Amino acid sequence: MSIFNEVQQLEELTVIGKALVKYAVSIEPGLVFKRQGSWWIPPVERNFVGFQFQWTDGLSIRLSLYGSPDEQFQQDDLIVRKSRFNYSKCRLTDENQLMAATVCIWRAHQLFYRERSVETGALVLIDEAHPLNAERMRTRVRQRKSKAMDFSVDQAQETMPRGLQLPGKAPKSNTRI
């Protein structure tokens, strides 16, 4: 049985489970999950995320994430708790938690390889829905790696969608007095 066969048993969470597994594989190409007890985990040298699919005690997906809860980004949609050793855990029960879970998986990947002094790719957030090709994404990641990470508040405000502003920053006005 593969991890995707087990995800099929989650009924309305099937799409969420598949998306999370595919996301983990996309940020760590060649990642293979093997069943150990009730968990699906990758080999030890790549163990930044693990999955447990529950359909007997209410439908849910449990994630095991590398890093402590205080190293994860705090999000209202998903509660991350301390687990064993240097791992955290969280539980997804509906599709509204998908984005928060992908951010947690990305952060666990970043923390896992930071401990091993391996450079990882940048998190690329896409604010518009449009088709992407693999070469364009590779180019964006290369560009982000080459730029310095010191991003000023003014630069951050300029890149935000129109109408949003950083806390404590007055909006710029185009009208003259």
What does this structure look like?
The protein is α+β, with helices and mostly antiparallel strands and 177 residues long. It has a single domain (3-128), classed as Alpha-Beta Complex (Aspartate Aminotransferase, domain 1), CATH 3.90.1150. The chain contains 5 helices and 6 strands. It has helices at 3-7, 14-27, 98-115, 134-146, 153-159; strands at 34-36, 39-41, 49-54, 60-66, 81-82, 87-92. A 4-stranded antiparallel beta sheet has the order 3-4-6-5, covered by helices on one side. The chain has a two-stranded antiparallel sheet with strand order 1-2. The radius of gyration is 19 Å and the shape is globular.
List the keywords.
177 residues; alpha+beta; Aspartate Aminotransferase, domain 1; 6 strands
Concise structural overview:
Helix content is 32%, strand content 15%.
How many distinct beta strands?
6
Question: What is the top-level CATH class?
Answer: Alpha Beta
In quaternary terms, these chains amount to single chain
CATH architecture: Alpha-Beta Complex
End-to-end span in angstroms?
70 Å
Uncertain regions spanning at least 5 consecutive residues: 122-134, 145-151
Per DSSP, the total helix count is 5
Query: Secondary-structure element sequence?
Result: HHEEEEEEHHH
CATH level-3 fold name? Aspartate Aminotransferase, domain 1
Rg, Cα atoms, Å: 19 Å
Could you tell me the mean pLDDT? 75
Which percent bin holds the helix content? 25-40%
